[in-house]
Amino acid sequence: MKFEHITSQPVLDAGRFALRPLRGSDAALIERYAGDERVARRSMTIPHPMPRGHAETMIARAKDTKHAETVWAMDASGLGGCALMGLIHLSELDRGQAEISYWVAPDFWNGGVASRTVAALINANPQGSRTIFASVVQDNPASARVLINNGFAYLGDAESFCVARNAKVPTWTYSKKLD
């Protein structure tokens, strides 16, 4: 029998689903959904094609309390839905600042999942952040709308390296003050 690592990471209510800590059993769905080229190309950190074992490594890192990043799974299984619809990451920065990044599986696009996820994380503010930042690739305006609809303000254009594209891509950067 294998026991899961017990974490003090809170489970957050997002209405139709919960945001919960990652579990080892999430690996297959992470590999399936994040391995989709459409998802990987909208993320800075997801490789495409996704190497075997990458999802397990991501889960192990998320469970490692030494990192300043917390990852939640978007889980609708409590209401008969899918156990993993996407992930949201909250990375602690300095001076009361944090950065979020998220992805939603294509099966759940245009259903309000990302908007509810970002809203739940902001409302809970588990790190007690005063400011939260986010960046999105410019060819993903839907993700930018999620941020704007959650009260994020546009800061400017930037550029980030996208692992799946193996290239720098133009991004839009946003912030939200929580004071």
- CATH class descriptor of the domain at 12-129: Alpha Beta
Helix count, per DSSP?
5
Shape: globular
Order of helices and strands: EEHHHEEEHEHEE
Task: For this entry, give a set of tags.
alpha+beta; Aminopeptidase; globular; 8 strands; 179 residues; 31% strand; 8-stranded mixed beta sheet
Describe the structure in your own words:
The chain is an alpha+beta fold and 179 residues long. The protein has a domain at 12-129: Aminopeptidase. It contains 5 helices and 8 strands, in the order ββαααβββαβαββ. The chain has an 8-stranded mixed beta sheet with strand order 1-2-3-4-5-6-8-7, with helices on both faces. Strand 4 and strand 5 (97-104) form a beta hairpin. Helix 1 crosses helix 3 (54-63). The longest helix is centred in the middle third of the chain and has 12 residues, at 113-124. The protein is globular, with a radius of gyration of 15 Å. The termini are far apart. Mean pLDDT is 94; it is low at 1-6.
In brief, what are we looking at here?
The protein is an alpha+beta fold. It is 24% helix and 31% strand. The chain has helices at residues 27-34, 37-40, 54-63, 113-124, 141-149, and strands at residues 12-13, 18-21, 69-75, 86-92, 97-104, 131-137, 153-162, 167-177.
Structural topology:
Elements: E1 12-13, E2 18-21, H1 27-34, H2 37-40, H3 54-63, E3 69-75, E4 86-92, E5 97-104, H4 113-124, E6 131-137, H5 141-149, E7 153-162, E8 167-177
Parallel strand pairs: 5-6
Antiparallel strand pairs: 1-2, 2-3, 3-4, 4-5, 6-8, 7-8
Helix pairs in contact: 1-3
